[in-house]
Amino acid sequence: MPRYELCVILKAMQRPETAAVLRRTVETLFERGAVVRSLENLGERRLPYKISKHDSRHTHGGYFSIDFHASPKIVSELLDHLERDIDVLRPTVLKKDIELSKAQCCGTQAEKAKTAASR
Amino acid sequence: MFALSSCRLLLQALPKQSITPRATAQCIRSLTTSQQEPLKKDDMPIKMENPFKSPPKTCILCNITVDFKNVQLLSQFISPHTGRIYGRHITGLCGRKQKEVSKAVKKARSMGFMSVTLKDPQFIKDPDICGIKHFE
């Protein structure tokens, strides 16, 4: 199953309410057959720009990142569900790519180019 | 007179020193044929890697993963006044990393991690990587 990352910005709320929102988000994921890998709190910060969502303009928000494995079919349903949630300001689902090996970075590339040119 | 000059010519013709050659170590070796020790090449150059080789050229982000969540790193490559991404001739990054930074900045902007028109005030005092001189 491909690996996705859900980066979600929640409304600036008290701790129990934030916990409730995260709980129902993760439960939605479980219902659709996703395997949650990790849930990270990236902190409550001031938003870089004011976001108007669900009839109100927000300046602060809580950033959370959920790493999960799921079937590609559920991604659109999940985004639809999150858009309807009043407490979620901006949901984004990204695909996690396999990271390139570090050996391919600049220095080795330049050397390869040199050897190729000298031939 | 003629005798003197002819005498001088004869003297010049004759070798100044004795005919037997000076016995150097190499000469002795060449004369004797039963030598079996290998020839010592003392003056041949030793094979080694070039000691004056310059280190491979790398860009500043070589072996550093660029992430859209790392707003501080990405903010170093945008203008503090307009928030625009600097070009390759300013940042000095290699092609691959410039593309990664550019993509990460755009991703962060759309996801609500980074501002579009300005640089986050807490990152303005960060050290200058790009070395661009702004009109003050």
TrEMBL record, chain A:
Annotated Gene Ontology cellular components are: mitochondrial small ribosomal subunit
List the Gene3D superfamilies hit by this protein, alphabetically: 3.30.70.60
Q: Do you know which InterPro entries this protein is assigned to?
A: Ribosomal_bS6 (IPR000529), Ribosomal_bS6_sf (IPR035980), Ribosomal_S6_plastid/chlpt (IPR020814), Transl_elong_EF1B/ribsomal_bS6 (IPR014717)
Which GO BP terms sit in this record? translation
Q: Which GO terms describe its molecular function?
A: small ribosomal subunit rRNA binding; structural constituent of ribosome
**Which region is the signal sequence?**
none
Report the sequence similarity comment from the record: Belongs to the bacterial ribosomal protein bS6 family.
Q: What is this protein called?
A: Small ribosomal subunit protein bS6m
Q: Which source organism does the UniProt entry give?
A: Cirrhinus molitorella
From TrEMBL, chain B:
InterPro entries linked: Ribosomal_bS18 (IPR001648), Ribosomal_bS18_CS (IPR018275), Ribosomal_bS18_sf (IPR036870)
Organism superkingdom: Eukaryota
A molecular-function term among this protein's GO annotations: structural constituent of ribosome
What single Pfam family name could you report for this chain, choosing any that match? Ribosomal_S18
Keywords for this protein? Mitochondrion, Ribonucleoprotein, Ribosomal protein, Transit peptide
Q: Where in the cell is it found?
A: Mitochondrion
Cellular component GO terms, alphabetical: mitochondrial inner membrane; mitochondrial small ribosomal subunit
Q: Where's it mainly located? A: mitochondrion
What are the GO BP annotations of this UniProt entry?
mitochondrial translation
Which family, according to the similarity comment?
Belongs to the bacterial ribosomal protein bS18 family.
Question: Could you identify this protein by its name?
Answer: Small ribosomal subunit protein bS18m
